[in-house]
Write a structure and sequence with these properties.
Order of helices and strands: EHEEEEHEHEHEEEHEHEHEHEHEHH
Number of strands: 15
Number of helices: 11
Strand order of the largest sheet: 3-2-1-6-7-8-9
Radius of gyration: 21 Å
Largest sheet: 7 strands, parallel
Strand content: 15-25%
Helix content: 25-40%
Length: 377
Amino acid sequence: MNMPRVFFYVQHLLGIGHIARASRIASALVRDGFDVTVVTGGLPVPGFPGEGIRTVALPPVVASNAGFSGLADGNGVAADEAFLSRRRDLLLSAFRDCAPDVVIIEAFPFGRRQMRFELLPLLNAIKEAHPRPKLFSSVRDILQENRKPGRDEETVELIRNHFDGVLVHGDPNFARLEDTFPLTSEIASKIHYTGMVAAARPAAPEETFDVIASAGGGAVGLDLLGAANAAAAMLPANLRWLLISGPNLPEDDFAGLVNARPANVTLARFRKDFPSLLRGARVSISQAGYNTVGDLLQTDCRAILIPFVAGGETEQTVRAERLKALGLADILPEAGLTPEIVADAVAMALATPRAALVPLDLGGAQKTAAIIRSLTG
């Protein structure tokens, strides 16, 4: 019997959260017996999409500014019409070659409006295909607030006209789609909650640090890392610090951190064992991205969250405030972050036990595969 074919589109523009979540889902689909092709549109990220997953890498684009309003190629040059047309044609060709039974589009149409130049043609190709594959939108539990009138209505129209289901990767006891998408009731029949897509609970760490500061993909984490680097020198020297810059931190910035680091600080660009390291840490300093929070929820580590707010971003602030309300995190503002502020917060976190962990559904990858299996027969 042939394995059902899945065509999974994911575009990360700044951080690595989207590709990390999609990769976990893709791996779960493979384990469930699907033949999966992941189409990536961002810069390569070590370890993703993962072993055993067929990958089509489109010419990468990145966000040309913190507000995500423009696109640039992998060299930072503004993406022109010819470049975008070539990407679109490659995507449509990959879709035809795959001839999938199921298509999953990550974020769109709730986000990734910048990619409409290739995603709207893909929707039309899906609609015209014989047989037509099932189409699902794959979205995190907390969405970015839409600030322009008509955007939510446009999203609803696209869902109604093209999509068979919306896979919401969250636990409704923590966050519901309607909390950040006001027109949820108009597409309620298509919504399926999967639980959070978190990595499996990691093994105990092979080395331990007292404080871990991480910047996700690293494209916007320099201020966080710089403040943490300097804060380490203000606190007892016997505290062991690990700073993880992320693969996208510019080389000159990484070198500057290396040159300024105190003796008790270890610097790394990427740690594959990051979830395991969090299990052994006493304090974590990070943004409030989906995947980092998923890792934190499986540890006893005290979290200090610095939500990303540049360009009017709201999603991380909502997530951080919910965790703070549960007694699971402290929050520092991104603007005006100083080593003194970070040092004070770390000292307080070291002295404050974390609240009892609220049980949340973290098995979203496996449940996503099961939902797709049940809906595609």
